[in-house]
Each structure stands twice: as structure tokens, then as C-alpha cells.
TrEMBL record:
InterPro entries reported for this sequence: Beta-barrel_TonB (IPR000531), Beta-barrel_TonB_sf (IPR036942), Plug_dom (IPR012910), Plug_dom_sf (IPR037066), TonB_rcpt_bac (IPR010104)
Organism: Rheinheimera tilapiae
Gene3D superfamilies cross-referenced by the UniProt entry: TonB-dependent receptor, beta-barrel domain (2.40.170.20), TonB-dependent receptor, plug domain (2.170.130.10)
Main subcellular location: membrane
Sequence segments annotated as region (Disordered): 33-52
Protein name in UniProt: TonB-dependent receptor
NCBIfam families listed in its UniProt record: TonB-Xanth-Caul
Leader peptide range in chain numbering: 1-25
Length: 971
């Protein structure tokens, strides 16, 4: 049978790490190649009957070098431009998560969050352009967008990963940057009857001692089992991985430049200078716990049929605190002396509070909790109907839940915290000067009070949860016809239907005032058992000391009848709340209602693809060409302000607190569209060791799922002009690109290495940007628009006319992304003696783009590059292996790039270039036991960002080094 032939050939690649494949076998996916095994009963049943086209050379490869060579063979015999990572056994990958593992591949870099890789960038494009699958199935994310957080996936539970840089028609659409395919174990394709592995590692962070209540120690533990039963017709795989690690950082954060005022007294053409909102100095600490589970059950009742069910669950919980202080510079009414300017922006000076400004220092003690869970379940049936025709049916469910609870506790300086009626101390003066990517100069007239229990009082408590749920159910049917044709080896066709639903729930509770002391919601006098005086250490030691507050003890004293919980509410100050429920001066928290909602996305796709197996001018040619049709039906719930008119659908909408709003009408907005995506991959086997690839395709990436949510607000003025605004848009279309790849691959031999060079070009058609549309057709877009209104001043009816609408749109200004990649891997087998185990694996990528975006976070509007793009990216590993001993040092470098600001969501800023160095040594004691020592972030590389210009500091964040000491047992 066709499948049996494939298994017979590819089993040697999986078992030996190398082989010479016939050209048609190069059409198979990396997972098909990597998972094939002599243990597959379908393989065993047919291998004795079928002969391969070429002899297979069996060469044993082991350890790190073996994994590298196996990955090179997967790349060599794949039918697309791709990169792979392979582990011979579950638990063999040393990385904390798949994010760390993927960054070792050419053209791939990572954005560090909390000191660890989380989001990956491919060829200069951010995570929003990366599509991800697990066992070939679409994955949803806890991020609230489409960007997968790869630190959610324990490397111990993943057997292989492939990054497709060029697509083919049979792959699920969605990756303009690329598609990441993760694979869990297939037990019947394991080379052994039974394997059992245990990994245990202790962890230490060397900066934890600088953080109050920081945890120094952590651990990692994993178990995995694979077994075959019933004459190798039934296979079972089970895996569990646990990570407990401290999360620590010491940081300075410069805030955005959102105020303009005249600070130098010179009335030039542009009279005002831009002033920052302020800055923060903080200790961050906490703990992260990730529990991952994997299971697979595989059954082959006879040679022509395989049924497999698999499950993957990962729970990632974190509790984190941020303690320190926040300096608010005071807005346009503050007094500024001795200003220091960078162009038209203030980067230093002395700021003094005035009667109209809000200049102050807030002592912050925030406690955040984040509970994330990813689930993926699937059933796959593979049936060889005839020798030349097979069917594959796949059913899948992927779900993600995220509950992020952002709890904030503000304290202010009082003149006397022991007074019967405490008074806020408004004698505030502070001096600072930014020093670019180094820590700033600071000075405060109230510095001594920040750690004085007789001066500091709690002034406000707020909690702002973000609850996201995302799930997709899908069914897929694929068919393959093997042809007796000198050019087309086989045809593939398939259908896929998916139904995705995303929901976002916002809620809120606030008490007190962060700018002064509230008369009705009085500040809390702190007691000695609630506080701890904290001193900054190391490079930060010149920052003022402050009071770290035990939030639970403080809140229990402030709310003796129980700490109130957040709710989704209109707020008593909202104008739409019924008059009988309205409270003068009450909070207006209607945003928690308007920003909550659902997004629905139904996708039907079909494809037809031909696999090539022929000779062109005596050169073997393989590859594929085809087209994928995608029809998308997307919609989102919406609340439209119709002024309480029941004729326009206004309803009494009750919030979680029982408050009633009668101004809004519920609606569902959206549209349906269809796309055609032609794709081609050609692989020329010029010699036995040289391969030329060419690929061309039209690709698409859908907008972040949360950007499809409707959060529109509209207003009709007295003249009848309707206007509106929205950060999101349920009518957003995908990003489209035409892309071209060409690469040359030179393989030295199956056990020595390769040299690969590649060029790529992407023509991006459009990007999402915020745009104001004049005379927008509100009614035509589905908004409730009355024909006339009554002017409240004149009492005269006025016809309603279309005005401006500001929203997220697909602008037509795209541009190119182009670049080059060079990868070199070499095991120096020709060296004498012990040096035969020496090797190197390096890659370099250069990427440039004409696409520019604009930011005004630094005050002046400046152009910045495409998010995720680093012009130069380098990865390198030097390793040595000898008689069970292994040592390697790895480094990854990326140029400055643009991404979201650390700790300040949705602020796009520049990040400085960084070099992260890791090292690892291990020793194989015997066939069962090995020990390991590992250091991550050897040089304690910080994360640094800035607002368009390096003189305007964003974030400077140090995370510390992580040390691991562990042992592995396998049998």
C-alpha cells in the first residue's frame, strides 16, 4: 500500500537519524518522517512485501549532535521551506518551554516577558502573524489574541516541532510569518516496546535576594511513558510535566509622553514641549506554577486502518506582586524648573506641585493573579481504502481560558497619618534626569516619608479582572490518490470546517482615591504588622526606600466585613443608569459592560494539491502546487447607544450589580468573505548533497481575535451630526501577502552537517491602523441611526447626518519585507581523538522592510519599524561530546526591534538589542541515569526599551540568572 511504502522508507530515518530517500518521499511532512518507526504494525506488515527505491544506509546518531542531524534530515526531505526540532524521547528537550526551543532555529527570535521567551517572531514579523497547530490542529490562545504563548507548552511533552516558512495548500491557513506545528508522541512509532523517563531539576535565581519576599528556589519535574501492547496493535503514551519557578525582577519604567506644555518659555513655531506622565521604580516577585498533561491512545486493528486519540492540557498559574513607587509628574499645570530637553521632549527637570496639578508620588503594592489553561483534544482516523487511495478524518477541540486579576493598592504621603482627619501632603517636589538606556538620576523632597509608617496611608484599592475564553471545534477530511504518472505522483484534496467563539468579560471594583484622600472613602492607617521597609540593592541602591505592604492584611483591616469582589457594572455615575439608581459623584464604570462581548468565527476551507515527482533536465524534481479556498463568516456582539429609543431597539440591560441602563440596543455585527490562496513548492535535487528550493504563495493572517470585538461608542450632537469611535472593528479583514522563497542546501553527509542559504520576499498588502473616516455611513454599517433628533437648545427637529468615525481599519499601505538567512551546522568527525565530538550550529538572518508605523508615545510623532522586526538576528551553539559527557554554550542575539512595552500593555515601543547566553553540561552515568547542570541568562542580560529615541527611557528590567541542577532516569 502507499502508506506502507512510506513507512518502510521513513522508519530508518526516525530510528537511525539519516537515510537516502526516494524523491517522492520528500513530499511527506516532518511529523510523518519523524514519527515513522519499525514498530508501526502497518509498516511491519508491508515492509517484507515492498522494496524501497534506494538502499538505506543505517547510521546510529545519539545525544545533542544526533538531534541536530535528525532535524537536518527532516528539513532535507520535507517538501516546503521549513525548520525542525526533534527529540528522540519525551523529556529530552532541555528548554523550559517550546518558546526557548524554537529560538534556536534560523530566522526565529523571541520577545522576553518576565525574563523568559514567550512570543516568537519569524522573519521579522510578530507573534500575531504566526499560526500555530498541535498535532495538525488549530490552537487557541490565552493571550486574548491569536498569538500563541509558547511558554504554556512544556518542552518535556513535545516530541517534535516544525516551523513552515513556506506553506502548501494542505496546511491550515493563517500564518503570514509562518506556521509552527507542535507534535506530541505517537506510541506505536516508538522504537522501543516500553520507555519510561523521569526528569527532576532544582532551580535557583541569583537576583531573588534583592526582592522582598522573592523566592530563590524552584523545581521542574516530569514523567513520561510510552508502551506497545497486543502484538503492537495498541499503543499508549502518558506524560506529566510540572514547573515551579520564582518570578523576580527589578525595574525602572518610564511612562508615555501624553502631556504638552510650555516649559522653556520660548514661543517658537511649536510652543509646547512634550512631558511624560511620570515613571516607576519597582521590585517584582512571585511564583509561577505550570502543570502539563499529555495522553495518547493509538490502535491499529489491521494494516489499513489506524485510530488515534490524544489529549493535551496545560495549566499555568502565576501570582505576582509589584512593589515600589510611581512618580506622577503632574500634567500641564505643574511647575517645571531647569528643564532638560531632547528636541521637543522633556527628559529631566524639577517638578513642583501647584494648586492645579496632580504632581505626586504613589507608593504602589500591586498583587496580580493569572490563571491560564489550554486544552486540546482530538481523534484521528486514517484509512488506506485501496493501495493507491486513502482517507483521513480528524475531529478536534481546542480551548483556552484566562483569568487575569489586576489588583492595585495605592498609598499616598500624609502630613500626619495619626491625625484625626489626615491631610494629604501637597508639598511635592521631585527632580529627575533620564540617562537613555541606563538608570536615571532621581531626587525627591519627600523621600524620607516613603518608608515612614506615620506618613504613608492607603488611599485607594482597585481590581480590574480580564477574563477571556476562546475555543474552536473543527472537523477535517483529507484524501490522497497515488497516481501512476511520470510527473504528478499523487493528488490531495480536503475539506475543513471550524467554529470558533471568543468572549471577553471585564469587571471592576474601586474604593478610595489615588490622587488625594477621599472624605467619604477614608484612607487607612497602616500598622507595623502590615508593612516592611524595603531598600533597593545593587545598581538600584540609590533609589529611595519604601513600605512594602501585605495586601491581604491591609484589605482585611480596610474591609472588616469582607473584601468586596469586582463586578461587571454600569456604575452609579453612568448617565444611562435609571435615575432611581443613580448616585451623584458615583463611579462611571460602564466600560466594563461595553468592553465585554463575544466574537464568532466560522470558517469553511477546501484545497486541491498535486505532488510532483519527475525529472527536469535530468534533475530530480519534487514538490507540490495547489490552491486553498477559504470562506470566513465573522461577527461580534455589540451594544449601540440609541438614546433610549425603544423603536431603535433600546432595552433595559441589567448589570451584575442589579443596575439598569435603558440607553443601549444589543446587536450582532459582521460579514462573510471568501479568499483563494494559490501555493507552490519546487525542490530540485541538483546532486546527492545539493538541493535548490523555490516557493511562491499567497498567504493570510486573520486579525487578532480580540480586535474583532465591538466596543463602539457613538454620539449625536445638537446639530444632528453623528460620530463614533472604536479601538476594534468586527469588519476587519485579514492581512494578505504574496511571498517568494529561494534556498540552496548543501549537506556534507548524513552525520556531519549542512550549509543552507536562503532569500525571501514578502509583499504585505495591508496592516491594521487607527483611521478616521469622514461622512461614515453609520446606518449602512448596521448602527442604529434616527432620522431626526430634537435640538435640546432650540426644540427644533434636526435631521441626523453622518460624521466622523474613528476605528481600526485595514489600510491599503503595505510594503515589502525581505531578507536573507544563512545556517551552518557541523559535527567535526574528521578531527582526531576526543575532538571528534566537537561541533557547531549557527544561523544568521538579515531582514529589512519599507513598512513604517507611527508612534507618539514619546511626544513627537516618529516612524518606527514593523513590530517584531530585528534587522540582524544571530544564534549560535558550540558543543562537545565525549564518552557520555556533553557541554554546550548557546547565544542568541537580536538587533533593536519594536514590540509591546513590558508591563504596559498595548504600548508599542522600541526595544534595545540583546544577547542572551545559556550553557549546559551533562553526563550519562550509565544506560539509565544522567545528571545535568544548566545556567540560563548567563550574563544577566536586561530588557531595555525606549520611546522612539534612546534618550526617552521606557523599561529597564533585570531578571537574574537561573541555575538548574538535575537528574534523568530512563528505562
Amino acid at each position: 500500500m502507499f502508506r506502507s511504502k512510506l513507512s518502510a522508507i521513513t522508519l530508518a530515518l526516525a530510528a537511525a537519524g539519516c537515510c537516502v530517500l526516494p524523491v517522492w518521499a520528500a513530499q511527506q511532512t516532518p511529523e510523518a518522517i519523524s514519527n515513522a518507526s519499525a514498530a508501526d504494525p502497518k509498516t511491519q506488515a508491508s515492509s517484507s512485501k515492498k522494496q524501497t527505491k534506494e538502499d538505506i544506509e543505517v547510521i546510529e546518531v545519539k545525544s545533542y549532535s544526533g538531534s541536530l542531524i535528525k532535524s537536518l534530515n527532516l528539513k532535507r526531505f520535507n517538501d516546503t521551506v521549513s525548520e525542525t526540532i526533534s527529540a528522540d524521547d519525551l523529556g529530552a528537550l532541555p528548554d523550559v518551554s517550546m518558546a526557548d526551543a524554537l529560538t534556536r532555529l534560523p530566522g526565529i527570535s523571541a520577545v522576553r516577558t518576565g525574563g523568559q521567551a514567550a512570543e516568537i517572531n519569524i522573519r521579522g514579523m510578530s507573534g500575531g502573524f504566526v499560526f500555530s497547530t498541535l498535532n495538525g490542529r488549530e490552537q487557541v490562545s490565552t493571550s486574548g489574541s491569536r498569538s500563541i504563548e509558547f511558554d504554556q507548552y512544556p518542552s518535556e511533552l513535545i516530541s517534535s516541532a516544525a516551523v513552515y516558512k513556506s506553506p502548501k495548500a494542505s496546511l491550515i491557513e493563517g500564518g503570514v510569518a509562518g506556521t509552527v506545528e507542535l507534535q506530541t508522541a505517537s506510541p506505536l512509532r516508538n522504537s522501543e516496546q516500553h520507555t519510561f523517563t523521569v526528569n527532576a531539576r532544582g532551580m535557583f535565581n541569583d537576583r531573588a535576594s534583592e526582592v522582598p519576599d522573592g523566592q530563590e528556589m524552584g523545581d521542574r519535574l516530569s514523567f513520561s511513558y510510552q508502551g506497545k501492547f497486543a502484538d503492537d496493535k495498541l499503543g499508549v503514551a502518558l506524560g506529566y510535566a510540572r514547573l515551579y519557578q520564582p518570578s523576580v525582577a527589578t525595574q525602572f519604567i518610564g511612562l508615555a509622553y501624553n502631556t504638552s506644555m510650555d516649559v522653556d518659555g520660548i514661543k517658537e513655531t511649536v510652543p509646547n514641549e512634550f512631558v511624560s506622565e511620570g515613571f516607576e521604580m519597582q521590585h517584582k516577585g512571585g511564583e509561577e506554577v505550570r502543570n502539563g498533561y499529555m495522553a495518547a491512545l493509538e490502535w491499529v486493528p489491521h494494516d489499513a486502518f489506524t485510530l488515534k486519540a490524544d489529549a493535551f492540557v496545560s495549566k499555568f498559574d502565576s501570582e505576582a506582586f509589584a512593589r515600589g513607587f510611581r512618580a506622577k509628574l503632574g500634567g500641564a499645570s505643574t511647575s517645571v524648573a531647569n528643564p532638560v530637553l531632547n528636541g521637543n521632549s522633556v527628559i529631566g527637570g524639577t517638578f513642583n506641585r501647584t494648586s492645579k496639578s496632580f504632581t505626586r508620588v504613589e507608593i504602589v503594592n500591586d498583587d496580580n493573579q493569572d490563571f491560564d489553561e489550554v486544552q486540546s483534544f482530538g481523534v484521528n482516523a486514517d484509512w488506506d481504502v485501496t493501495e493507491n487511495f486513502k482517507l483521513n478524518l480528524d475531529l478536534s477541540h481546542s480551548a483556552a481560558q484566562s483569568d487575569f486579576r489586576n489588583g492595585l493598592l495605592w498609598s499616598l504621603v500624609a502630613k500626619d497619618a495619626n491625625a484625626a482627619t489626615p491631610v494629604f501632603d501637597d508639598n511635592v517636589s521631585m527632580s529627575y534626569k533620564l540617562n537613555g538606556l541606563n538608570l536615571p538620576d532621581l531626587g525627591f523632597n519627600q523621600a524620607a516619608a516613603f518608608s515612614d509608617i506615620n506618613r504613608v496611608m492607603l488611599s485607594k484599592y482597585g481590581i480590574y479582572p480580564y477574563e477571556n475564553e476562546d475555543r474552536v471545534d473543527a472537523v477535517r477530511l483529507d484524501a490522497t490518490w497515488r497516481l501512476d504518472n511520470p510527473v504528478i505522483a499523487s493528488l490531495e484534496a480536503g475539506l475543513r470546517y471550524s467554529d470558533r467563539e471568543y468572549s471577553n468579560e471585564r469587571s471592576v471594583y474601586e474604593y478610595g482615591n489615588d490622587g488625594a484622600f477621599s472624605a467619604s472613602q477614608k484612607p487607612l492607617k497602616l500598622t507595623a504588622d502590615m508593612v516592611q521597609v524595603v531598600n533597593f540593592k545593587g545598581d538600584f541602591s540609590y533609589f529611595p526606600s519604601y513600605l512594602a505592604i501585605d495586601q491581604q492584611k491591609a484589605l482585611a483591616a480596610w474591609f472588616p466585613n469582607g473584601i468586596p469582589q469586582p463586578v461587571k457594572t454600569w456604575g452609579t455615575g453612568n448617565s444611562g443608569v435609571l435615575a432611581s439608581q443613580r448616585v451623584t459623584g458615583g463611579p462611571d464604570t460602564g466600560w466594563s459592560m461595553l468592553q465585554s462581548g463575544e466574537v464568532y468565527e466560522k470558517v469553511l476551507s477546501a484545497y486541491l494539491m498535486a505532488n510532483i515527482d519527475t525529472d527536469l533536465w535530468s534533475i530530480p524534481l519534487s514538490g507540490n502546487f495547489g490552491v486553498r479556498m477559504v470562506e470566513t463568516d465573522q461577527s461580534a456582539t455589540s451594544l449601540q447607544n440609541v438614546g433610549g429609543d425603544p423603536k431603535l431597539g433600546a432595552q433595559n440591560i441589567v448589570d451584575d450589580a442589579g443596575l439598569v441602563n435603558n440607553q443601549y440596543a444589543p446587536a450582532v455585527l459582521g460579514e462573510t468573505y471568501r479568499d483563494y490562496l494559490p501555493q507552490m513548492n519546487l525542490n530540485f535535487r541538483v546532486t546527492d548533497d545539493d538541493q535548490l528550493r523555490f516557493a511562491a504563495a499567497r498567504v493570510m493572517s486573520r486579525p487578532p481575535i480580540n480586535r474583532l470585538a465591538s466596543d463602539t461608542s457613538t454620539n449625536i450632537n445638537n446639530d444632528g451630526i453623528i460620530s463614533g469611535s472604536s479601538q476594534n472593528n468586527p469588519y476587519l479583514r485579514p492581512f494578505y501577502a504574496d511571498q517568494y522563497d529561494i534556498s540552496w542546501e548543501r549537506y556534507f553527509s548524513e552525520t556531519e552537517g549542512a550549509l543552507v542559504g536562503a532569500l525571501f520576499y514578502k509583499n504585505i498588502k495591508s496592516f491594521i491602523s487607527t483611521f478616521t473616516i469622514a461622512e461614515f455611513d453609520f446606518k449602512g454599517a448596521g448602527f442604529f441611526v434616527p432620522d431626526v433628533i430634537i435640538n435640546p437648545e432650540s426644540g427644533v427637529p434636526v435631521p441626523v447626518k453622518n460624521g466622523n468615525y474613528t476605528t481600526a481599519v485595514n489600510n491599503s499601505k503595505g510594503g515589502y519585507i525581505r531578507g536573507a538567512e544563512l545556517a551552518y551546522t557541523q559535527v567535526f568527525k574528521f578531527l582526531p581523538g576526543v575532538w571528534q565530538g566537537l561541533g557547531v550550529s549557527t544561523s544568521y538572518s538579515f531582514t529589512e522592510s519599507e513598512i513604517q508605523q507611527q508612534t507618539n508615545l514619546g511626544g513627537s510623532t516618529v516612524d518606527i519599524s514593523l513590530p517584531g522586526l530585528s534587522e540582524n538576528v544571530f544564534t549560535g551553539t558550540v558543543f562537545w561530546e565525549y564518552e557520555g559527557f556533553e557541554a554546550r554554550v548557546s547565544a542568541r542575539y537580536r538587533d533593536p526591534f519594536v514590540s509591546e512595552q513590558v508591563a504596559v500593555n498595548e504600548q508599542i515601543v522600541n526595544f534595545d538589542g540583546e544577547t542572551v547566553v545559556d550553557m549546559q553540561t551533562s553526563y550519562q552515568v550509565n544506560d539509565q541515569w544522567s545528571v545535568l547542570f544548566q545556567v540560563n541568562n548567563v550574563t544577566d542580560e536586561p530588557t531595555k526599551s525606549y520611546f522612539g529615541d534612546e534618550t526617552q527611557t521606557g523599561t529597564i528590567q533585570f531578571f537574574g540568572r537561573q541555575y538548574f541542577l538535575g537528574v534523568t532516569y530512563s528505562m
